[in-house]
Each structure stands twice: as C-alpha cells, then as structure tokens.
C-alpha cells in the first residue's frame, strides 16, 4: 500500500482526466487559501491601525466567496470522478473474473467484499486522496515560497520542521497497512458468513437453529468491530500526531514572531502574515495523512487487484487472454480449443487429474473422447464419481492439475442452474438473444410456456435462485436457455432430474433436437435418455484409502494465518470507553470542546500577536502564550478522543443492530425473502444499516460539535463586543437554515440515490456470488456482456441520482461560504468601528475580527452533516421496507402440541400462495389430505401443481390461504410455532451445505448428537464410503460437494434429527437408481419401528415403490394409513 501507485492511471486511462481536474482544483484552492491568509493579515492590521477597510475587505470577501465556489466545484467533481473511476475499476474487475476459471480468482466471500465495499472505497482514494497528494506536494511549496518573500526566518523554521510530518505519517502508515489488511479479513468473513447463513436460513429455521445464529452474527460483527476500531485508532492517532506536530511547528514560528514584534524588529502586518501563512504549509500535508487513512480500504483493494492482474496497462490488456493453468502443475496442464472445421476433431479429456480444495482426488488420470460433430454423448456413473467436475472442465470453468482438456466454446446447464433475480426474459437473455418470439418458441419446446403464459409470460418475476418456479420448471428454463444459445458444445447436468415423468419425453425430444446440430454431453441417471445417446462415457469414483471404522476425531480446523481479531505483538489494550447514549453525549462534548479550542486558538493567537506589537513587558504575555499552547495541544487530543469514542459507540451499536436485523429476518423466511436476492439482503443488512448507524458519527456528533463551537465563538465575540457576538450567532443561524433547506432537498433525492446504490450492490453481489454458474451459461469469452451492461446501467442510474444530490450539496457549500464571507466582513467592520471609537483595544478588536474565520471550516462542514442525516433516513426507509413485511406464518399460538409420538396431520381444504398480497391464482389448490402416524405418502403431479407448496404448509413455513391445517385435531395456528416446527424435518429440493465442517452441518439438526450417531446417519444414507475418504473425518470442511452428496447429507441431517415427521422434496433427483435406492432405503430402514411419517415429492418412478401416491392434479379427499 504505497502512497501512490501509478498502476490505476496506467491501466484505466479514463481516470486520468478526473484526477487531473481534481488536482488542479485542489492546487487552486490552496493558492486561494494563501491569498486569504495574506488578505486577512492586512485586514486585521487595518482594523488595529484604523486604516480604510473597503479595498482589502472587498478582496477578502471575494476570496472567501471564491473558496466557496471552489469547494462546491470540488464536491461536484470529486463525486463524479469517484463514481466514474469506481465504475471503470468494477467493470475491469468483473470482466477479469468472468474470463478466469475458479483457480484464477479469489474465494466467493473475498470477491463479494472486494467488488462491493472494496471498490466503493476506491472512490475516496481517487476523489480525495490522490488530489490531496498533488496538493500536498504543490501547495506547501507555494506557501513556503510566499512566506520566504514575507519573512525568511519564519520560512526557515517551516522548511526545517515540515519534513517531520511525512516521516511520521509513513511510520504510522506502515502500521495502519497491517491493521487494514486484518480489517478486510474481518469484512470478508462478515460478507461470506452472512451470504452463507442467508442462503441456508430456511434450513436453520426448519431445525430451530436460526436464533442461535443471531449470536454468531453478533460475534462475527463484533470481530469486524474490533478489527475496525484497531484500524481507526491507528488512523486517528496518525491524524492527531500530524496535527500536534504542525501545531508545535506553528507555535515555534509564533514564538519567533512574537519576540521580534516585542523588540520592534518586525511590522505587525508581516507578523500576522507569517502566523497565518505557516498553517497553510502544514495543512495540505496533514490532509494527505488524513485522506490516506480514509482511503486505506480503497488502496488495499487496488493493491489486491493489481496482484491479481486486473490493473494492467491498456496495451497489455489488449493481448488475447488464455485460460491459465493451475499454478501447482502449470507445466503439465494444457487446455486446447477444437480446431475449426476439422471433421475428425474430438472433444474430451486426456490424462486429467483434479482435486477440489481440501478434498481427496476427484478425477485420476481420466481420458474421455467423443466426436466434435453433432450428436449426443451420455456421461454416467455413481454419485460422487466426478461427472459434474468433467462438465466444468470441458466448459473451462476449472483447470485440471494435470492433463489436457480439448473443447470448443460451451454452454453448461448445471444441476442448480443460475437464475438471477429479474424476469424470465432477463434470464433467457443471458445467452445473448433478445428475440421474444425465439424465447417463447424455446419455452414451448421444453413445455414451460403454458405455465408462464398463465402468469405474466416473459415478464414473470423470479426471485433469488428461481424463487417462484418449481425445481422442474427451473430445469426446463435452463434447457430452454441452452436451446437459445449458439455454443457448439452443450453440456447438460441431469436435465430431467426434477421434471415430472409426464414431461420427461418432451425434454428427451428437445435434447435430441439440440444434438442434431451440436454436440451435447449429458450427465444423467435416466436410463431412457442414456439409451438415446450415440456415444457414452462412464466414470467410477477414484479409489480412496479406507479409514478406520471409528475415525480419529480431529480438533476443529482453524484457518491458517493470524486471527483478524487477535492483537498484534506489543499491543497495549486501550482504555475502555463508555458506549450507548452516555458515550454519544461524551463524544459530542469532546468534539465541541475540540472545535472550540480551534476557535480560541485562532482568536487568542491574533490577540497575542497584536498585543506583542505594542512592545509590552514579556511577562504580561505569558498567560496568552500558555493559553495558545494549551489550545493548540488540546485541540488534536480532544479531537482524537472524540473520534475514538464516537466510532466505538457507533460500531458497538452497529454490531448489535446487525444481529437484531438478522433476528427480524427469521420470521420472514423463506416466504417473504424468496424474491429478494442475497445481494439485496447483504446491502440491507450491511450497507444500509451502516448508513443508519453512521448518522451518529457523521451527523449527531458533528452537529453538536458545530453548535457548541458556534456558541463559544459567539460568546467570545460578545464578551468584548456584544453586537459582534450577535452577528456571529446570526451567521450560525443562517448556516443552520441553509442546512435545513439542504436537508429537505437532499431528503427528496437521497431515497433515489440510496435505492440506486442498493440496486447496484445487489446486482454486483448476485454476479460475484455466482461467478461459476454464470460462466457456465455465458462462457469465459463473451456472453457476459449483458450482465456487465446491467451493472453498468445500475451504475449510471446511481451516477445520475448522485449528481442531483451533489448539486444540492454543492450549492449548500457555496451558500455557507457566502455566509462566512458576510459574517467576516460585518464583524470586521464592527471591530474596526469599535476600536476607532475606543470601545475595545486593538488586540481585542483583532480577536473579535478573527472569530468568524476561525469558525469557517466548522460551518463549511454543516452541509455534509445535513447530507449524512438525509442518507441515514433514506437507508432506514429501505431497511424497514424489508423488515416491515408481515410474516407468512402467524406466530400467535401458545399451546404446545399434545402428542406422545407422531401426530396425525390433516389438511382440510388447504390452499396456499407465496405472494404476500394473496393476489392471483393459488400456488396450491384447495387440498384435503390426512396423514396417519407412520404413513408414507408420495405427492405427485406436474411441475407447478403445488407439491413443494404443500410441504411448506406441512413444515409451517407457509400458512394456508384457505382451509385449516390440523395436528391431532388442534389447529396449527393455535399452537406454538417453534414447538410445531420441532416435529418436522425437511429435505429441500436444493439442500444447503454450510461453509463449515461435516459435524457442524449435521449437529444443527440435533446439537446433542454423538459422533457415533453422526457417523451412523451418514452410513445409513450411503455416505459411508464418502466419509471414509475425508482427510479430517467429521472435522473436514465441506467443499466441492456434488449434488448427490449434498442431497444425502441433507437426508442424514433429517435422520439424525429424530423428528417424527420427515418431508422429502426430490431427495434422489441427482442420484443414480442404485444410490437412490440405498439412500432412501437406508433412511426408511433406520426409521423402522419409530412410526415416523414420511412425505415424499418425486418424479422418479423407482422412488415411489412402497409409497401411497397422491396425484395433486386429481386429489380431492385423501386419507392414508400407517405403512
């Protein structure tokens, strides 16, 4: 993290113009500040001498007004430049990741954090830090040169002390780099953990573990808070140290000037000019230090992107990219395209080996080949043999450890096809087509159009992961997308697994139609489909060394490297600070005291210099000298204390509120969150909540600080000249009025800006959290432009919203500086008149005249305070839009189910819908169904008939829209919700495996389960061999699970729970017949004698043997008996 790295400028030429413009504006602003110091010195000297004020006063007012215009211009240009550069960096980053296999980009949680918060932090780096760096190099030189012309001795002091500031900044900055990297580790952990628990929230709700995760969310947030506080303490200490050094240096100049004035060796105007010019030499360097720490996150992100190869010069970026080989064996791995037009060309793998991270070998010396000409190749083999991995290698999504992969551009329809939040049209357009007629034709070809036509057709809204469609409908949508694509190689991963039996022949016909013009490789457990193929591949699992019958249990695995929350060597624990409202009040008082010290310092310094010019006895100046020193020291110290306390309070509040927000999401799961993407939820719980809590730091504390400082300034002026105090108070009220108007204007625009930012965040998160499945559809070289165009469109909407916002902010800044100019001019005239009339002495007239200028920077920050408050209110509205929904399940019951073992479940005319308003057709038509204890019932019927909806009602994830749901004659809505859910175990059609160990994934169903019981459950569902290959036994972290392994892990979880009712939604969809028979048979055998009720949804004929089948398309009244 160097002070400046030209990689960004070289890689993204579009950033050069905005950075150059901001730098020019910054240098001009510094020059104007130097002119202001000179004019102010002349003005104060004339107030004291009684000379005519008009010429210099007019020039000073014009200079202050020009500073306001430049400050407003800086705000406009900085915001536009920051957004423009962030847009360029984000586009380059996403484009880079979309062209790389899994091994060539960061982990998902790191990618999400980097593409959202990380790149947003680049705005501060570009818009604030880089211009400050240029100003820090130019303006001090201008100030020293001017000071050299005014007073060479003072210039010498500045030249000797100024280099100390960058030296101290560099020393503290090196420590800050470590702290920032640790903070980003905590940020990635927070983002990754939140994405994981939100995706698995239905599972957590089912097994009653969601509320336990509230504590985990709080703990992760606390780790992020601790890492952030450590970083901020260092950054704030750096700022305080630089300010203290600058104050001491200016004090040295003041002492020299004062002594020379006292001995008559200097004119008053020269002394005033020296004192007012000296801070202008130090301020740009101090600002560089402050902005460097504010931009540390952005600098860290840019450094990481540079190491990844994202930020490369434009000339190098134009070189065609090739898929990189694994670094572990780059010399033995090649990926070769199929030669164009070669009649004998082959597609396949030669000597390929591959292992998922943390897993044993998945593929070992695999050689497969099939003609590149049109045709159908079936890939078969048991679950876990690596079939999906073969498809991902052919698509270029993974890089083999060794061997050669030969394949043309491919389209992969995965087991869990990527369906992004949006419409059906949006998801079909991922392959590049925009022809509605072609889309409808493809949907008709797979038999999905009739269901969509009855809704909103191509405009049918889809939620996260295809919420709103059944698993079979999602599979058919993925196949329709493959039909619309033009890739010469089509890879289908179990396309008929979740599809109703009546619809399977239609899909067979569609696949054969595809194979007539393209090479299709299909992974399938469907014997009919396999028999239709003209070529076949078969895989068997790689033999693994058998583990002991009772594996050694290894302690929980920890991630290598330093714990982000652990203290560094030599760390001294800071003094605790109060939190809550007490801490907030303390921070406000500290901030007000700090700003008041600044006002007092400027005013007292003016008094001291003017008094010294009268050549008094030195001892009469000692009180003022001590006061100047005290104010100079206390200002940075109090500022440091205020920032530490305020940020501690805010971050503590943030960690607590984030956990509370997560707790409020639980009752909304899954029905009310299904249509919201994980990106939108991440924005809500992280960024919007940040803005809400940020109000304390950026609005509440600064507003009280400004108010306290204004009161002190008004009292200080009124003490010697009451009318001047009234003018200062009037100026403060005018600034407050401008802020109120600015808040009203920004409040109207902030909602649009916050909404636009939220849309951008959730689009980026939706993409970065699904990079591999998105690449499966779009390919590595093209097709992703539509997604990037969507991100670009969202960024442009945000830019327009922010432009409206920043225009209002800039006008507020200009207006505030005009108030400063008017107040300064009025108070100067009053002081001049009062001194001429003998009402006040010259030193006190100087003191009064300097008060408005001392308040200038404080008042200039008030528009930003109003903006922060408006943004917080807009973010709070977005937050409430999510959390304020009515739960889909009533939690009014207090009675516990009065059951001794397995209850009888009865649906009496139950209809249900997932839509919150209940509008439109029911997703489940009214159904009468009685499930006796111990019964085994299979729900059948076409996709979309409501089978999964019926399971949701039985699991109490959804309340009936019509009818009643009874447990042993008790209405479910009268029973305690948690107690009712404790009776039911659920295996979803797309079961979730959490990013943790095998043990952690299973004990959430029953925390008191022993290791022996866990292993027995795994073996019962045919995961015994899989378990024997795990390097760390139950403590092995789950990565690279196949669909079948994930399904069986969910079956083991349900078995281990011991709950009397088990709901199975397509549990064997991704299993071959033999494995499905062993897994389901093992589950039922283990439950033998327990009289557990089982409800199965399946489209596989082989799964239905021994089950009472209920066809929901013809069901009226159905009673079942114990099996």
From TrEMBL:
GO cellular component, one term: plasma membrane
GO-annotated biological processes: cell redox homeostasis; glutathione transmembrane transport
NCBIfam families xrefs: CydC
CDD domains linked: ABC_6TM_AarD_CydD
InterPro entries reported in the protein's UniProt record: AAA+_ATPase, ABC1_TM_dom, ABC1_TM_sf, ABC_CydC/D, ABC_transporter-like_ATP-bd, ABC_transporter-like_CS, P-loop_NTPase, Type_1_exporter
Secretion signal, residue range per the UniProt entry: none
Top-rank lineage group of the source organism: Bacteria
Protein name: ATP-binding cassette subfamily C protein CydCD
Domain ABC transmembrane type-1, chain residue ranges per copy: 20-297, 586-765
UniProt keyword list: ATP-binding, Membrane, Nucleotide-binding, Transmembrane, Transmembrane helix
Domain annotation ABC transporter: ranges: 347-569, 905-1120
Transmembrane segment boundaries: 20-44, 56-78, 129-149, 155-174, 235-255, 261-278, 589-610, 616-634, 704-721, 727-745, 810-832
Family matches, as SUPFAM superfamilies: ABC transporter transmembrane region, P-loop containing nucleoside triphosphate hydrolases
A Pfam family that the UniProt record links to this protein: ABC_tran
Localization: Cell membrane
Example GO molecular function: ATP hydrolysis activity
Membrane topology classification: Multi-pass membrane protein
